[in-house]
Amino acid sequence: MRLLVTRPADDAEAFGALLSKRGHVPVIAPVLEVHVLAGPELPLGGVQALLATSANGVRAFAARTQRRDLAIYAVGPQTAAAGRKAGFLRVVSADGDWAALVETVARTAVPGNGVLLHAAGAETAGRVKEALQARGFRVETKILYEARPATRLPAAAEENLRNATLDGVLLFSPRSAATFARLAGEAGLLEQCAPLAAYCISAATAEALAPLRFARVSIAAAPNQDAILDLIPPLNPTS
Question: Where is 141: in which H helix or E strand?
Answer without folding.
Answer: strand 139-149
